[in-house]
Structure formats: C-alpha cells, structure tokens
Amino acid sequence: MSEKVKVPTVGESITEVTIATWLKKDGDQVAMDEVIAELESDKATFELPAPKAGVLKIIKQEGDTVPIGEVICEIDTSGAGASKAPAPKEEAPKEEPKPTPSSSSGPKATGEVKEMKVPAVGESITEVTISTWLKKEGDFVTLDEVIAEVESDKATFELPAEAQGILKIVAQEGTTLPIGGLICKIEVATGSPQTSASKPAEPAPTQSAPSGNASYAAGHPSPAAGKILAEKGISPDQVSGTGVGGRITMEDAAKAQASQPRPTEAAASAPAPVQKGAREETREKMSTMRRTIAKRLVVVKNETAMLTTFNEVDMKPVMDLRSRYKDKFKEKYGVGLGFMSFFTKAVCVALQEFPAVNAYIDGNEAVYHNYCDVSIAVSTPRGLVVPVIRNAESLSMAEIEKEVVRLATRGRDGKLSIEEMTGGTFSITNGGVFGSMLSTPILNPPQSAILGMHNIVQRPVALDGEVVIRPIMYLALSYDHRIVDGKESVSFLVKVKELLEDPGRLILGV
User: What superfamily in CATH does domain 209-255 come from?
Assistant: First the structure.
C-alpha cells in the first residue's frame, strides 16, 4: 500500500511552496513523524514529517515549486517498509523495563504520549531552530527538566520537558520549525528516575567516550559553534567544551585558536602553495537570525525615507572627566566608567527636547513616547542583537553602565530574552570599537532614529584662533524623514554634541 504525501496548508495567503531540501533520499526507510524534507514559502521555512512509516519515493525534486495540495512524494507502507518501520520502536521500550527490576519505585509506563510542540515565544517570531539537544533519544526526563536549547531570530531560550518519561526526538539539531511544529514526544511514565533510571544510564556514555564523566555531547559543537569553528579552520577535537555534557558552546568556539601543525602536517601541507589560482567556494545555510536580519534591512530601505546627518564631537572634556574619576567610580560602584553612559544620558536629554526623534509611525498616526528605552547594539557570535535599557532617562551613570555590561554579557552568551530585545524607542550603535571612522547606520524599525558612534582620532582643529590637536569623534544620526524634519534631526545632534563637550551639564541637568 502506498501513502501519498501532499503539500499541507500552511497559511491563508500561501498558495505554493518550494522544496528546499530533502532530508531523506529516494528509497530510504522512514519512520512515522520523522522529518523528511524542508519546505519554503515566501514567509517561512517549515518541515514536512512522514505521515506513515515505510519506504520513501520522491516525486518532486529540490528546487521545485509545488502548489498547496499537490503530491510531492509517496511512502510505501507494505513489504519492507512495513516490516522495518516498527524496529526502532521495539528498541526504545527496552530501556524502560531495565530500571523497574532494580527498585519498586522505578518509572512505569502509563501508555500516554505527550507531544511537545514549538511554543509561541513572541508576536513577531514565526519559526525557531533546534540549536542543541541536552538529552538524547531514549533518555528518561523529568517534568520541567531542560531538554533542549531553541533559538529564534532574536534570542536563544531553553525548552523544558512538559511531562516525565522517555524522550523520543522528532526534530534533530539544526532543524527549523514553525510555531506549533512537533519537536519531540515523551512516553509518560510514573516513578522516581533518581533511584532507578540514573544507574542504568551510566554504561551508555562509556560506550561513546572514554571518560566516565563524558556524555554523548562531549566534543560535539552546537550548530552555531560548529559554524564558528569551520570559519576558523579548527577541528572540534582541538576544543574543550564547557557546555552541558561537554558540549562545545559558541563561547568555546569564539575563544578557540588553531593549534600549531605537527611537523608531519606541515610537511604534508608544504606543496599546497604550488596550486596558485585555486578557486574554491563554500556554501553554508544562513541561520534563522541572519535571514531575518537580511529581510528587515531590505524592508527598512524600502519602506522608510531614511537620511543621515553628521557632526563631530571634541571628546577631550569627557576623556578628562573619565581619567579624573574612573578609579573612584569603579571603587564605589563596581563597574567601569565608559563612554556609553555619557552618550546615553546625552541622548535622553536630547530626546526629551525633540520628541519626534523618539517617536514612530503607526499607520496614519505618529506615536510619541514620554520615556526613553534606549537600544544598544551588541555584536555576538550569532550576529547583531539590540537589547534595551528601559527608562534610561531616570537612571544614573552607574546604573546605565551596569545595565550595559549586563545586557552585553547576556547577548554574547546567547541568553537574552525576547523581552530584553523588544520595545526600544531609540538606538545607539558603536562602530568605533571596530575602527570605523564614519558610517550611515540603518534604522531599527519601528524606531525613527539611530545614533552612530565612531572611533576617536587625534585631529587638528581650530580653537580660539589657534590650531590644536584634539580627540575627535564623528557622530551620525540616521532618521526617518517621514516623521523627523531636517531641522529637528540637526538640532538633536547638535544638542548631543553640546552636552558631550560640556559634560558638567549632564551631571547638573542643565
């Protein structure tokens, strides 16, 4: 018997999809609910699970565009397909009887199966990617135990088990799922896993790793970490993982450095330079976060009237003030005195004086804020994230510095929540840390303006009729001309310049 698999309905406005990737080959044995292909629409990427177990027969090839309801493959559920399909299911329950003889309080199967689906994690998020499984197929998990790390285009979050029992993984690491997509199943069981399930689980890791403390995850990078290591040309074998079970995290990969080649390796690679003119290419699938960033940037360019105005700031007054009080500041507040607190305070003062720069357009209305939620751009191994400092206008310099450090650290560790990255009213980005002299920062929608900081360079300037050398920074303000007039944008940037060149006004509030 053959089961025809058709393109499912994935949304009211979607009429066709494209076969992005076949995860199984023609003639492969597939299990029920196993993901066999990735489909792309004009709005999202989602996965196609097998409705039955059997042998796969591919009809539509990768790259084909198929309308909703058309057959893309068939699954032969008779013969070899039917006989092999139950095999994996017979092995998994074998792990359940093992704990029960050792203790009367061991886990006992109830026959109930809990399906875990991708939860709604934010209004604008339509899909997520399975970053890392912290538990493996067949493991006993407890209620609310974290079993996986899932990442969206904005943040990485943890996935807790919704029941106690045996884990059955449906979506593998690197798989992208729409909201509501099936991630895994849990065969619900009662009993305490501590007294029975923990002991039988010990032999499994020893088979895959020589150390008794190692696990299946030891030495294996997460998808994001693997990408970083590949870019550096570093083998996972050269990196020690600090994640759960020895997993190599993004931070491990970012810190990793290629080891010196052995003499034999150096000799083997010596002839390589002779092959001049080699033209190699590497293709890598863009992460969900990178694809979303790309789409948002195009939307901003197409849907806003973006302009940029520039000015320069003499940073000597701020630098002198920092030099004079940075030691006492750190001693008292436990955090360094950086430039960001000065810029944030100056921006908040200017935003309250020029409210259009702190507003956004909603349909035919302009929405003005009487508070300043300042978004701070932070570069991470996964890409650019923009966490928000809430009510920055009411914070002290020390409070701003502490919040900047906290958000930047969470961003680089991939621990920022959706709430920490949404709702900003104005953005600040600092390209100067990478050596940028001048740039035109792009808007962070739906915000109407963003301030770009750049590097500080000693330049000759005219001061009181004399040419002197001063530390100068160029500032750039990009703004949406639909709501911010040229006069307001220029005046806003001049106000920021004046406050930074006379930082005493920030302290005194005048």
Answer: E3-binding domain (4.10.320.10)
